[in-house]
Amino acid sequence: MAKEDIAVIVAHPDDEVLAFGGVMCRHSERGDSVHLLIMATGLAARGSVNTVESSDLARLRDDARSAARILGVSQVTFGNFPDNRMDSVDLLDVIKQVELFLYETKATMVYTHHFGDMNIDHTVVARAVLTACRPQPGACVRRIYSGEVLSSSEYALAEHRFQPTSYINMDDYLERKCAAMECYRSELRAAPHPRSCEAIVALARLRGSECGLKSAEALRLLREVKL
User: Fold this and answer.
1) CA distances (Å), 88 to each of 43, 47, 52, in order?
2) Which of 47, 50, 126, 185 places its Cα 20 to 30 Å from the Cα of 58?
3) Do 207 and 215 meet the contact criterion of CB atoms below 8 Å apart?
4) Average model confidence (pLDDT) for the chain?
5) Listing from the earlier edge strand, what are the strands of the sheet with 166-169?
6) pTM score over 0.85
7) Is residue 61 over pLDDT 70?
8) What CATH number does the domain containing 185 carry?
């Protein structure tokens, strides 16, 4: 089977683990090159003022690199868009960063956020990715999937909830997904918070039960172009 370049494009550090931890393990094990783009800082919205301490940002990005190593990611790229304020910047600026990333990686498959997520940054990134991946003649991208992020996707309005179309067997990757999430010292929470290892396992078991597997990661196919 031919090896591919894979792009995972998310808003915040830890989104990639929650949505696509198993997907990235699977791709890396089959020899694909997995390229990760994290668009926003993931910090400022939690403080009383809209500032990012350089030491905190460096620590969070070190956590992201540690998680990426566990999942077999080839390359991690960071953007500097404001956390939970990506609707305050021009969408074109977001699209251009995605386009540059896709041009540099030559990715044929892209994974990104569900458009209906409650988090505004997820919505902006999803829209930017779909725009950057518009199927023009000569475009590299052949498949686009969205995924679900615990503590965002399940909080959406009922009519916007994530509805899977595809499932990835997680039996061999669930432990690594949890280990990668544990790298995020500032993001991990104790159960029953959805951003906990217990919740990750529970969701994987639920998705597995939907498709006859012990555990699974759920995806939604947004576009596929077969040559």
Assistant:
1) 16, 18, 17
2) 126
3) yes
4) 94
5) 75-81, 33-40, 5-10, 109-113, 143-147, 216-224, 166-169
6) yes
7) yes
8) 3.40.50.10320
What letter does residue 44 receive in the DSSP assignment? G
CB atoms within 10 A of CB 226: 5
* Cis peptide upstream of residue 192 (ω within 30 degrees of 0): yes
Q: What is the 3-state secondary structure (H, E, C) of 91-136?
A: HHHHHHHHHHHHHHHCCCEEEEECCCCCCHHHHHHHHHHHHHCCCC
- Looking at the 3D structure of the chain, how many domains does it have? 1
Q: Identify the CA nearest to 138 among candidates 221, 5, 227.
A: 227
In tens, the pLDDT along 129-148 reads 999 999 888 889 999 999 99
Q: What angle do CA 208, 210, 216 make, to 5 degrees?
A: 25
What percent of the chain is modeled with pLDDT above 90? 85
**Count of positions (residues) in the chain:** 227
Q: Which of 49-53, 57-61, 159-163 has the lowest mean pLDDT?
A: 49-53
Q: Taking 80 as the threshold, does the pLDDT of residue 52 lie above it?
A: no
The residue range of the domain holding 93 is 5-224
Cα 15–Cα 151–Cα 82 angle in degrees, nearest 5: 55
In one-letter notation, the amino acid at residue 81 is F
Alpha-helix runs per DSSP H in the chain: 15-29, 54-71, 91-105, 120-132, 174-182, 197-211
